Amino acid sequence: MQGKLFSVTDSDPNPVIVKPDPFAALRYKEFRSFLGMRFFFTLAYQMQAVVIGYHIYDLTHDALKLGLVGLCEAIPAIGIALYGGYIADKSEKRGLLIKIFTGVWLASVLMLIMTSKYLHLKEDIIVLIMYGLVFCIGIARGFFGPATFSLMAKIVPKELYPNSATWNSSSWQLATIIGPVAGGFVNYLWGITAAYGFIVVLVSISLICIFNFKKHPSTYVPKENIFHSLKEGIQFVFKTKMMVWAMSLDLFSVFFGGAVALLPMFAKDVFHLGSYGLGMMRGAASLGAVVTMLAMTRFSPMGRPWRNLLIAVTGFGLSIICYGLSKNFYLTLFFLFLEGSFDSVSVIIRQTIMQLLTPDEMRGRVSAVNSMFIGSSNEIGEFESGLSAKLLTLVPAVVFGGSMTIAIAGITWLKTRSLTKLSLQDINEQTTKPV
């Protein structure tokens, strides 16, 4: 009975449904390899975010230059996302992921070499090179999101999408707990070169996990040119009311709530704790997310998913305001924990909605549109936060971002009140409707 969502007795003419199986998706070997790939890659990515962010701020002491890190990644990720979705739909997924991760591995190796003690580069040159390598990783991300979204739908049955989304997000969030803390401490104890050495090893493990996947040839054979194919994906998204509102909600809430980019300033200038303090703060948000996601394997938020999504985004904004105003390090950790908890509820609901509403042959292109809304809104939000901190100073910038996030949730509620009554079954049966 591998992978069934509920434990039942097949021979009984009146089977008794018992508790949902929280490990249903994990009973698929390929899904476990998928989680391994995501976990080790995210671990490397989060370590890299801490190391690069702290290093650039340490070199420049400029909030705007810190925010530019996110912009350097977002520009290529957005620019290539639609083409990445088209390629993901028509390509064999295993081979595509091998190419993507090879590119990320090469960029990580270059970062390692660049920070070697044998190279003596000027600070301005180091910052420019870091921006360039982050730009290259942004290109890889433009292909990575659509490829993984398409693949996950092929390795578990449809009835396990909510369960697989929970485990996928839990694995991701667990890595985002360990990664920032590890990055901060390794950088603090042994320096940036050692941190990049760890990152290269982790990316290598992710690449090995991909070789455990089966080959999944595409079922989509384009009969039209690329522009018509991309237009088809965009039109599908904008004709699906719940999908387009979910993307818009996340885009604007994360855009104004991207204050995580300013955590290096809190660590260095407010709490005077250095890179290990930064790692603890980034890890606190991820710890809240993992604890909440593990709870959601038993207590699903999908009873009234749209209502719960709006509540979670509102809580996310309130948490941002609270940690921006806090002057106590441990209280700040608590509010960051809450921020991660609320964000994790939002992530689970949005992932499940996306998986349920997207046809198999359009997953890559729909994921690409999603990436343009959501995947890069974090980085653009980081730039917005850096610019706000430059203009308003640190604390007002964070409070402004949290307040705008709450306002976005309120506006969305006013425009989508009819969706708050829908159950998961209603969403599963939903067809495309005009916005």
Automatic annotation (TrEMBL):
Q: What is its main location?
A: membrane
Q: Tell me which InterPro entries the record gives.
A: MFS_trans_sf (IPR036259), TM_effector (IPR010290)
Matching entries from Pfam families are given as: MFS_3
Alphabetic keyword roster? Cell membrane, Membrane, Transmembrane, Transmembrane helix, Transport
Where does the secretion signal sit in this chain? none
Question: How does it sit in the bilayer?
Answer: Multi-pass membrane protein
May I have one GO cellular component term? plasma membrane
Kindly list the places in or outside the cell where this protein is found, as annotated in its UniProt entry. Cell membrane
- SUPFAM superfamilies with a match to the protein in the record: MFS general substrate transporter
What protein is this chain from? Predicted arabinose efflux permease, MFS family
Q: Which residues cross the membrane?
A: 35-57, 63-84, 96-119, 125-144, 165-182, 188-213, 244-267, 273-296, 308-326, 391-414
Origin superkingdom: Bacteria
